[in-house]
């Protein structure tokens, strides 16, 4: 029996088709339901998800852009998205906000705090906000989030914003699923600037210094100069973006129009140059590879034969007269001769 074949179940098939139809009409309840389904780890949901994704992939596509936003905790990402999001809707955009919080698996959902912070935005009828539970495997989250992005786009959202806190690997994952990557930073300068991870600075296509208000304005300008100097020393960006720095106050709603225009210009350039579409293909490949590697590791770790082989080889090692590389050689020989994979 080919376990990859499409299972046909008339009842849920028509349910999924209805869900896809409602979703395509921009129904937010249907979109929420679809996302919950895609995020489900239940075995019995797998075929439904595949059918849903296939159905929506056949829908006509609107031009949508994916924007990643990162920055240290408290820099004002959510406040920025709140202000910028309203601005986008005033310019006839439909905005979806996805938030990935790598810390929420431990705290049991600190992201809900974000949802309340984006309270007003969430009441805007042209906005959809959804926190993404990150769980333990960020690689898997990236794959799921890609699918969630596709659902949002199928529902007619044309500006997809992915917020992530600048902790651990999450920014790298978000950069791998968005078209444009924005770093929000504080009006800090000098030593404090060192706190920004170099890799993150290099990934950014646009750097926005938030909280440039009140007593912070002059500090923000100094920080801007320093960041600009740092940018000068960085290699040219592969995607052709010339990295700009901007000042804004998400709280006081200043500098948001400039940010909006800069973002639109960058996206337009990426689209025109063809980089955007080739990058999306590359992202898909990267995400798939990561998923395969992650799941393969999970698979062998949970596999009994692997466990007994491991303990056998390990015993050899402990008993002496051999070396880790010798035992590795035996292990690889065993793997090579496994005939379990039958395509
Ligand atoms: N003065 C000033 N305060 C701001 C500005 N933007 C945000 N804040 C404040 O900074 C605090 C943190 O803002 P958030 O938007 O929650 O920051 P965040 O980056 O989303 O935080 P996490 O999601 O926890 O990483 C809040 O108290 C905001 O009111 C701004 O432009 N100026
Ligand atoms: Mg936030």
Number of strands: 7
Using the CA coordinates, give the radius of gyration.
23 Å
Bound molecules: guanosine-5'-triphosphate, magnesium ion
Which descriptor suits the 3D outline?
A: globular
Explained architecture:
With 343 residues, this protein is of the alpha/beta class. Helix content is 56%, strand content 12%. The chain has helices at residues 10-24, 28-39, 46-57, 77-90, 104-107, 111-117, 119-122, 138-154, 170-175, 191-194, 198-203, 217-232, 256-273, 275-302, 304-319, 324-336, and strands at 65-71, 95-100, 127-132, 159-165, 180-185, 206-209, 244-247. A 7-stranded parallel beta sheet has the order 3-2-4-1-5-6-7, with helices on both faces. Helix 12 (217-232) links the parallel strand 6 (206-209) and strand 7. The chain is globular. The chain starts with 9 loop residues before the first helix and ends in a 7-residue tail after the last helix. Residues 1-5 and 104-116 have low confidence and may be disordered. It binds guanosine-5'-triphosphate and magnesium ion (MG). Guanosine-5'-triphosphate is lined by residues 71, 73-79, 114, 117, 165, 210-211, 213, 249-251.
């Amino acid at each position: 029996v080919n376990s990859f074949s499409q299972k046909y179940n008339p009842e849920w098939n028509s349910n999924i088709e209805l869900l896809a139809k409602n979703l395509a009409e921009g129904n937010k309840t249907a979109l929420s339901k679809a996302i919950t389904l895609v995020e489900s780890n239940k075995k019995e949901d797998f075929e439904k998800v595949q059918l849903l994704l296939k159905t929506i992939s056949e829908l006509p596509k609107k031009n949508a852009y994916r924007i990643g936003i990162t920055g240290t905790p408290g820099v004002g990402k959510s406040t920025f998205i709140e202000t910028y999001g309203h601005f986008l809707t005033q310019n006839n955009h439909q905005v979806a906000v996805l938030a990935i919080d790598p810390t929420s698996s431990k705290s049991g959902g600190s992201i809900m705090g974000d949802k309340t912070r984006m309270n007003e935005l969430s009441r805007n009828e042209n906005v959809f906000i959804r926190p993404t539970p990150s769980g333990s495997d960020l690689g898997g989250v990236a794959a799921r989030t890609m699918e969630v992005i596709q659902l949002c786009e199928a529902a007619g959202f044309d500006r997809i914003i992915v917020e992530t806190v600048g902790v651990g690997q999450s920014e790298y994952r978000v950069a791998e699923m968005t078209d444009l990557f924005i770093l929000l930073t504080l009006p800090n300068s000098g030593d404090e600037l060192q706190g920004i991870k170099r890799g993150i600075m290099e990934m950014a296509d646009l750097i926005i210094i938030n909280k440039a208000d009140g007593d912070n304005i002059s500090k923000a300008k100094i920080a801007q100069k320093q960041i600009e100097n740092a940018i000068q020393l960085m290699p040219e960006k592969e995607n052709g973006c010339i990295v700009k720095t901007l000042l804004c106050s998400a709280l006081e709603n200043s500098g948001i129009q400039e940010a909006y225009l800069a973002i639109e210009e960058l996206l337009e350039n990426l689209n025109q140059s063809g980089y955007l579409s080739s990058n999306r293909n590359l992202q898909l490949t990267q995400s798939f590879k990561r998923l395969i590697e992650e799941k393969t590791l999970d698979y062998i770790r949970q596999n009994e034969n692997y466990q007994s082989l491991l303990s056998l080889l390990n015993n050899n090692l402990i008993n002496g007269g051999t070396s880790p590389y010798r035992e590795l050689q035996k292990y690889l020989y065993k793997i090579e001769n496994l005939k379990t994979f039958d395509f």
